[in-house]
């Protein structure tokens, strides 16, 4: 989604049919605006925290060995998609914002759509985690997902997200020149097509949240009923211990989903407002866009902090690396 909406300093560029900028669209030789400096500082901080945090989470899952669960596999995939956002999407967006696209048109078509792909992978992974918890807790007598099925599901998520989001976007991207500045920019057949595509992408990012909320609502209700049944059991009984472990895991996963929603929805709303209201890109609007975009990328750095604060299993897995 971060690459789906135009976040460059100029909200629209008057290009001609050849993909070259008209004279009035040329970038003036001026100093970097204040909001861009603010963006560079925030993005650098997010990158540092998120990069090391997600690497540590992936390392912690690997340290679990055969003790890995389906939830661990999905959480590792979530960390992988967050890491990809920070390593690829964030620098690509920042590079185009502050400088010029240094690569060719093929790289433009390959790397630029990956921001939407990583976002789709994240939301689909969160959905898979919610469905896994639902199947395990709400319908315990049905066959549970095993680790092999979870790995297959992860592969299917990546392939489907790339085919559904990445491939269509790559066809509309072109490398255009504005004096000595090159920009990777989407070209649409019409405004209607562009708006439909952006609404479609926003729906992919937000509609699964309703399914996730339903799953966790049912999970919480099921855990509450079981807890009432076993409330008279000894605190150190095996049943009570397992129930408490499930409760803590579900609590952590719900907080991850809440953090994802809080970080994502403001940017989606802001970008759609820019698209459908024709709001001019004034300095104050640019600052607001940088703020919500920073919040969007911050989600990739928040998840590792939540995991390390709320999960003893991940903290134990990190001991070999001195964390």
UniProtKB/TrEMBL annotation:
Q: How does the record classify its membrane topology?
A: Multi-pass membrane protein
Q: Pfam families of this UniProt entry? A: 7tm_1
A GO MF term: G protein-coupled receptor activity
One cellular-component annotation, GO: plasma membrane
Q: Does the record bear Acyltransferase in its keywords? A: no
Alphabetical UniProt keywords: G-protein coupled receptor, Membrane, Receptor, Transducer, Transmembrane, Transmembrane helix
Q: Start and end of every G-protein coupled receptors family 1 profile domain?
A: 53-307
Mark the transmembrane ranges: 36-62, 74-95, 110-131, 152-176, 196-217, 252-274, 286-309
**Superkingdom of this entry's organism?**
Eukaryota
Q: Where in the cell is it found?
A: Membrane
- InterPro entries according to UniProt: GPCR_Rhodpsn, GPCR_Rhodpsn_7TM
Question: Is Membrane one of the keywords?
Answer: yes
| Protein family (similarity comment) | Belongs to the G-protein coupled receptor 1 family.
Q: What is this protein called?
A: QRFP-like peptide receptor
Query: What organism does this protein naturally occur in?
Result: Acropora cervicornis (Staghorn coral)
Its organism's taxonomic lineage begins at:
Eukaryota, Metazoa, Cnidaria, Anthozoa, Hexacorallia
